[in-house]
């Protein structure tokens, strides 16, 4: 494998920003020092650029197998790398659902063949796959995914016995989608009664309501406390839920952690008028006050991780009326750029961005030797220019669905180079086919 020398980067890592050189060899960071004068196969002059650990996205839907007309692992991993995400953890609501070890292995095989980024795939839980779920290897599978509310793919776990069994016996981290099904159904029925086919997108956060989220998230917390489960609650969308989480112990000691997603940090219900179903997500984007409280929890440590819930559907599907349009949208290519805009606005610091998108994700999942810029660690890195605008157009969207909720927006920063496991996989606006990323390993 070739060597790379990065000269004069502003390295953002572990709470500080310092000018440094980085030498990469055999996929790993061999040396970090103020000045390195080694010869390398490739030298990158990073004067004026910031070097960050590549993002680790702990929640994506890449749709393969089964839904590859929407997206596939090859296309979406390339979009991720172009966006500065070097590792992803992918969800089991593919077709067939990843509910057996064999079906899960099939996804790892596809990842090995076609993913440009490093990858891990969640094992799915259902009402009746306990035996298969128990066989999950904590060393090389990121976690068990439980849909405690139904979303795309009909993977609802609604049997109380199954939930207790999963929370009591899961061999590794349990990640949950929390929306109380009965509440969502009752709200939906009430809106249907009143408005018939005229139920519209602005009603989405009232149907998939605060109460639905809180009931389900608090139930997950209760179960985790009862069984001492390692619980990670995904995509917190309400201010009320943020009070379920602690910030008075180190992340490593937490048994319950939480994730916020870029869309819940960027959009609010005021955006439904202009964006319509293109910002229809489950859980729904809620009020500006919710968004503010989620930010507060991110910054004070009650929410540990920022990710995307990248979930592409086709433009045609999203153009259907509210009742037919599926929830979800593509985000991996623009997540870092969106967060860098928030840095420019003073919402968070660069150091906090790196902590929430890489360091903490690695700590939360015990990812082995990634997520930090440290000697001996894998070289998963992204170089960004904070002073070079980047306009999102249909032509530069790499996700297979070819649309983005950010289309037409100009971000203040540009991603210049992305390095995945020591290979330059994206540079100056182009994907470089350097072979597949690595399967993530976990220190557990
Ligand atoms: O909006 C969503 N879309 N939320 C989910 O939990 C699933 C996702 C999808 O797979 O489309």
Summarize this structure as a short list of keywords or feature phrases:
20 strands, 30% helix, Dihydroorotase, binds (4S)-2,6-dioxohexahydropyrimidine-4-carboxylic acid, 21% strand, six-stranded parallel beta sheet, 14 helices, 444 residues, globular, alpha/beta, TIM Barrel, metal-binding, single chain
**Spatial separation of the terminal alpha carbons:** 29 Å
Number of strands: 20
As a whole number of angstroms, the C-alpha radius of gyration is: 21 Å
Looking at CATH, the homologous superfamily is: Metal-dependent hydrolases
Strand coverage percent: 15-25%
Dominant shape: globular
Helix- and strand-based class? alpha/beta
Helix tally equals: 14
CATH C-level: Alpha Beta
Mean pLDDT: 98
What helical percentage do the residues reach?
A: 25-40%
CATH architecture: Alpha-Beta Barrel
Characterize the biggest β-sheet. Answer: 9 strands, mixed
CATH topology annotation = TIM Barrel
Number of domains: 1
Residue windows where pLDDT falls under 50 for at least 5 positions:
none
Explain the overall architecture:
- The chain is α/β, with parallel strands linked by helices and 444 residues long.
- It has a single domain (55-365), classed as Metal-dependent hydrolases (TIM Barrel), CATH 3.20.20.
- Helices cover 30% and strands 21% of the residues.
- It is built from 14 helices and 20 strands.
- The strands form four sheets. Strands 1, 2, 3, 4, 5, 15, 18, 19 and 20 form a nine-stranded mixed β-sheet that branches. Strands 9-10-11-12-13-14 form a six-stranded parallel β-sheet. Strands 6-7-8 form a three-stranded parallel β-sheet.
- α3 links the parallel β9 (123-124) and β10.
- The radius of gyration is 21 Å and the shape is globular.
- It starts with a strand and ends in a 13-residue tail after the last strand.
- The structure holds (4S)-2,6-dioxohexahydropyrimidine-4-carboxylic acid (DOR).
- Residues 61, 93, 151-153, 177, 281-282, 309, 311, 326-328 line the site of (4S)-2,6-dioxohexahydropyrimidine-4-carboxylic acid (DOR).
């Amino acid at each position: 494998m070739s060597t790379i020398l990065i000269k004069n980067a502003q390295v953002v890592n572990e709470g500080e920003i310092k000018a440094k050189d980085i030498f990469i060899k055999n996929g790993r960071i061999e040396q970090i020092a103020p000045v390195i004068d080694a010869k390398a196969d490739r030298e990158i002059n990073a004067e004026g650029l910031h070097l960050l650990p590549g993002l680790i996205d702990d929640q994506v839907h890449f749709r393969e197998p089964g839904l590859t007309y929407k997206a596939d692992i090859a296309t979406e991993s390339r979009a991720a790398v172009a966006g500065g995400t070097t590792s992803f953890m992918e969800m089991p609501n593919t077709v067939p659902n990843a509910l057996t070890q064999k079906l899960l292995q099939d996804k790892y095989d596809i990842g090995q063949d076609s993913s440009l980024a490093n990858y891990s795939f969640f094992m799915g839980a259902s009402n009746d796959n306990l035996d298969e779920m128990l066989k999950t290897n904590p060393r090389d599978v990121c976690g068990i995914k439980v849909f405690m509310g139904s979303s795309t793919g009909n993977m609802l776990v609604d049997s109380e016995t199954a939930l207790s069994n999963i929370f009591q016996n899961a061999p590794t981290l349990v990640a949950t989608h929390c929306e109380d099904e009965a509440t969502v159904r009752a709200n939906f029925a009430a809106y249907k009664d009143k408005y018939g086919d005229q139920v519209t997108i602005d009603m989405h956060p009232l149907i998939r309501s605060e109460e639905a989220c809180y009931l389900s998230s608090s139930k997950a917390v209760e179960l985790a406390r009862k069984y001492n489960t390692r619980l990670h609650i995904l995509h917190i969308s309400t201010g009320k839920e943020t009070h379920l989480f602690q910030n008075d112990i180190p992340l490593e000691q937490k048994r319950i952690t939480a994730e916020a997603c870029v869309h819940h940090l960027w959009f609010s219900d005021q955006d439904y008028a202009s964006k319509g179903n293109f910002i229809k997500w489950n859980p729904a984007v809620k009020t500006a006050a919710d968004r503010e409280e989620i930010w507060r929890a991110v910054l004070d440590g009650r929410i540990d991780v920022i990710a995307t819930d990248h979930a592409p559907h086709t433009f045609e599907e999203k153009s259907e009326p509210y009742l037919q349009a599926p929830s979800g949208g593509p985000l991996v290519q623009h997540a870092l750029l969106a967060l860098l805009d928030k840095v420019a606005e003073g919402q968070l610091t660069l150091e906090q961005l790196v902590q929430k998108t890489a360091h903490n994700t690695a700590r939360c999942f015990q990812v082995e030797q990634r997520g930090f810029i440290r000697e001996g660690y894998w070289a998963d890195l992204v170089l960004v220019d904070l002073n070079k605008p980047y306009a999102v157009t249909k032509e530069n969207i790499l996700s297979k669905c070819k649309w983005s909720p950010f289309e037409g927006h100009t971000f203040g920063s540009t991603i210049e180079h992305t390095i995945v496991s020591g290979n330059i996989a994206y540079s100056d606006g182009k994907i470089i086919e350097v072979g597949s990323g690595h399967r993530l390993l976990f220190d557990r």
